[in-house]
Write a structure and sequence with these properties.
Layout lengths: L10 H13 L4 H11 L3 H14 L6 H19 L4
Helix pairs in contact: 1-2
Length: 84
């Protein structure tokens, strides 16, 4: 682990993080570390998409990228109940 640092946030967010950490039997720091390691950056998402396309024998292109983004947008709309 690197050098400790501080993050400024609202009291509400801090309190929620404290509850979430307590429910998991961990600390806020460990909770944040786990959350940060679980989320992919845009660059990592692009790399994984390209790798998946290669495994499927598909040339990863801007069109394929848009089709994938459109598909995930539809999935999220259905999950949130906002699909038309």
């Amino acid at each position: 682990m690197g050098k400790p640092t501080s993050i400024k946030t609202s009291e509400e967010v801090r309190d929620r993080l404290r509850v979430l950490a307590a429910e998991r039997g961990t600390t806020i720091t460990e909770l944040l570390e786990e959350m940060a390691s679980r989320e992919l950056t845009e660059s990592e998402r692009q790399q994984r998409a390209a790798e998946a396309a290669r495994e499927l024998g598909v040339q990863y292109s801007a069109d394929i990228q848009r089709a994938g983004q459109d598909a995930w947008a539809k999935v999220r709309a259905h999950q949130s109940g906002t699909a038309a």
